[in-house]
Amino acid sequence: MTLQRTELAPLSEYAIETHGLTKRFGSFTAVDHIDLTVRKGEIYGFLGPNGAGKSTTIRMLCTLLKPTSGTAKVAGFDIDSQANEVRKRIGLVSEKLIMYTRLTAEQNLMFFGKLYGIDNAELKPKIEELLDMVKLTPFKDRSVGGFSSGMRQRMNVIRALIHDPEIIFLDEPTTALDPQSTKFVRDTIRDLKKGGHTIMLTTHIMEEADELSDKISIIDHGKIMATGTVAGLKDEYGTESMLEVFLMVTGRELRDSASDRVSMKAVGRM
Amino acid sequence: MQTKARQVSGWKVTTEIAKRDLLDLWRAKMLLVFFILMPLLFMTMFGFIYPPTVQVNPYSGQIPSQYPDLELAIVQQDNGQIARNVEAQFIQIAESQGIFRVNEVTDYATARNGIVKGQVTGIVVIPQGFSAAIQADTQATIQVTVDQTNPSVAAAVQSEVAEIFGAIESQISTQYLQNLDPTVNPTFALQPMAITSIPLIAGVPTSFEYLAPSFMALTVITGALNGVSTAISREKEQGTMDGLLVAPIPRQSVILGKIVAQTVRGLIQGFLILGLSMLLFGVVIYGSPITMLLVMVLGVASFIGVGIIMTSLAPEQETAQMMTTLLQFPMMFLSGILFPIAQLPVAVQYIGKAFPLYYAADALRKVVILNASVSIIMPDLLVLLAYSIVTMTIAVPIFNRAMSR
C-alpha cells in the first residue's frame, strides 16, 4: 500500500458551517445569504416547502453547484477551493437513484468504490458488508433496474457509504417508499448517527424530521426562517406538532408555480 | 470494516468510466444486436440503391443498365422492310440484355396513355418515311418520348435508347461503307480511336468500394458524436452524473472516459463494417489497418468537441439528440458519404467541405482501397487535427462550467 498525503481537517466542533451562502440563477435568488452550523455527529433536519432552496443548498454543500457568493466549510474544508477534500468526506443520497440500472448491484458498487480510490482488496469485503447490512446480498448479481423502489433506495444509501464518509446528505430519502423500506431507511439513519456520522436530512415528512432530528432549520424563499431543537421549536411556536410549526413558519398557501421554476434550473440543468 | 477515500489519478478514473460505459453496452443485449445490424442494413440498402457501375463498350453488345426491365412502348408508323428490321433488332437487343421489355403499340396516342397510366416509361416512334430515308442514303429520324415527371428514369431511358440505336446504327454504317468500298475498314472509319481503361484497382469496381470506407467514417464519427452526447445527457437526467461529480475525481476524466468508451465502440463498429463489406460484398482491402485506425481516431477527435458543446447546451437528452441529428443529416448528404460531392453545385460543395467528416471519409477511402500512405493523406489529417484542437478548446471549458454552474 502506498502512503497517501491527505490534508488534515482543521479542528472544529462543526461538520458544516456556512456564511452568507447565496445562489442565484439569473435574476432568481434560490438561496439567499444562509448562515447555518451543523455540529459533528448530529442529525440536522433541513425543512422547507417545494422551491424553498433546500436542494440548491444541499447541492452547493456537496460541491455540485458553485455558490454565487458566500462561503461554506464542510468537514473543515472550503467547498469551492478544497472541493476534492470535501468530496472525500461526504456521501450523497438523493431522491434520484444514483445507480446504473443495467449493471448489477455489485458492479455498481465496485464502480463507485473505485472512484474513491478504494482498491479491490478493501472494496470486495466492504461491498459484502454493505449488501449484508441492507439485506441485498442475494441480489448482488442482479441488474439494479429490476429492483423495487425500496431496494433501489437501500442501494442508494449504501452507495453513499462505500468510502465511510464523515458527513452524509440525505435529500428526501424516504419519498415514495413503502412503510417497511421507510422504517429501514430511518433505522439506518439512526445507526449512522450512532456510528459517529453527521447527517443532514431534507424531508417533507414532518414526523420523520420530528423523530430523527437533533436540530431543525426551516428554509423558505431561500432564507432560514427558524432554527432550533425539535423541542425548542415546538416551545417557541406553542404547539406539539412539527407540522404546525412548519405551517406557522412558512404559511399555508400552495407553492406549485415556484417549485417548478426552481427544480428545472437547480436539478435539470445542474 | 473501515474504508478511506483517496484521490485517484485522472487516467485511472478515465479508464474506470470508459470500462463501465462499455460494460453497460455489453449488458444491453438487444442494443448490441442493433449495434451490429445497423451498419449491415445501411450497407446493404445503399449498395442496392447504387448498383455496380461497370463501363463496357456498347459495341461489344454488353450494355449495363441501372434500371433493368423497364417497360417501353414502340410505335411502328413506317412498316417498310428496313423500319421493321430496325424495330426487330431494337427489341432483340433491348430484351436480350434485359434493358427494356418492349411492347408494340399501334398508335402514339395509346402509347402516350401508357405513360400517363404508369404502364410504360418511354415511347420509341419509328415515323413514316424511315425506310425511304435510309434507302435514299439520307439521315432517318427516330422519335423518343420519356416520362418527364421522373427525371432520373427519363434520363436513363433516353440514354439506353440512344445506346441501343447506336449499336444498330453502327451495323447500318458498316454495311453502307462496305457497299461503297470493300477495302475500307469500317471499324476504323466509324471509330478511329478505341478507349480502354487501365483499372486503378483489380477486379470489377462496385459502389461498395466507395461506400464501405464512407460508412466506416460515418459510423465511427456519428456514433461517437451521438454516444457522447446521449451518454452525458442521460446521466444528467437519471442522476448518475451526481454520483460521478460528488466523487473526488477530476472533472475532465468524466468526459474523457465517455470519449474513450464511445471511440472504442465506434472503432469496433467501423471495423465491423469493413469486415462485413469484405465478407458480403467482396470489397478488397489494400490499406493498413493501423493507418485506418489513425484516420478514424482523428475523425472522432475532430467531432467529439461538437458533441460536448451540444450536450452542455442542451437542457435534456431529447434536445441533445435532436441537435446531433440536425448536424448528422446534412453531413451525410453533403460530405461525400453516399455519393461524391463533385455531383453537387460548387457552393454546396463548400458546405460539404466544411464538415470534418468529408476529410475523414476521403482519407479513409484512399487508405482502405488505394493503400495510401500517411504522407499522402497528410492534408486530410491536418484538417482533422485542426478541427480537433479548435473544437476541444471551446468544448472543455463549456462542459466544466455546465457541470458546476
Question: Summarize this, please?
Answer:
Chain A has 270 residues and is an alpha/beta fold.
Q: What is the 3D form of chain A?
A: globular
* Annotation, overall tally of beta strands of chain A: 11
Number of domains of chain B: 2
Radius of gyration of chain A: 19 Å
Strand content of chain A: 15-25%
Mean model confidence by pLDDT of chain A: 87
Radius of gyration of chain B: 30 Å
Oligomer: heterodimer
- Find the CATH superfamily of the largest domain in chain A: P-loop containing nucleotide triphosphate hydrolases
Summarize the largest interface: chains and residue counts.
Answer: A-B, 47 and 36 residues
- What ranges of chain B have pLDDT less than 50 throughout 5 or more consecutive residues? 53-63
Roughly what percent helix of chain B? 55-70%
Domain count of chain A, please report it.
2
Shape of chain B: elongated
Low-confidence stretches of chain A are: 1-5, 257-270
| CATH-defined fold name of the largest domain in chain A | Rossmann fold
Strand order of the largest sheet of chain A: 7-8-9-4-10-11
Overview of this protein structure:
The complex is a heterodimer of chains A (270) and B (405). Chain A is of the alpha/beta class and 270 residues long. Chain A folds into 2 domains: 39-80 and 166-270, Rossmann fold (3-Layer(aba) Sandwich), CATH 3.40.50.300; 97-165, no CATH class. Chain A contains 10 helices and 11 strands. Chain A has helices at residues 54-61, 83-89, 105-115, 120-133, 149-161, 179-194, 206-212, 230-237, 242-250, 256-268, and strands spanning 14-25, 28-34, 37-39, 43-47, 69-74, 77-78, 90-93, 167-171, 198-202, 215-220, 223-229. In chain A, the strands form 2 sheets. Chain A has a 6-stranded mixed beta sheet with strand order 7-8-9-4-10-11, with helices on both faces. In chain A, strands 1, 2, 3, 5 and 6 form a 5-stranded antiparallel beta sheet that branches. In chain A, a hairpin with a 2-residue loop joins β5 (69-74) and β6 (77-78). Chain A is globular. Chain B is built from 15 helices and 4 strands. Chain B is mainly alpha-helical and 405 residues long. Residues 53-63 of chain B have low confidence and may be disordered. Chain B has 2 domains: 10-50 and 203-403, no CATH class; 58-190, abc type-2 transporter like fold (3-Layer(aba) Sandwich). Chain B has helices at 10-27, 29-49, 81-96, 108-116, 130-135, 151-180, 186-190, 207-238, 240-245, 251-281, 289-313, 317-334, 346-354, 356-370, 378-403; strands at 70-76, 100-105, 122-126, 143-146. Chain B is elongated and about 105 Å long. The A-B interface holds A 4, 6, 25, 62-66, 84-85, 87-90, 92, 94, 96-103, 107, 111-118, 122-123, 125-126, 129, 143, 159, 162-165, 268-270 and B 1-8, 12-13, 16, 20, 23-24, 27-28, 236-249, 315-316, 402-405.
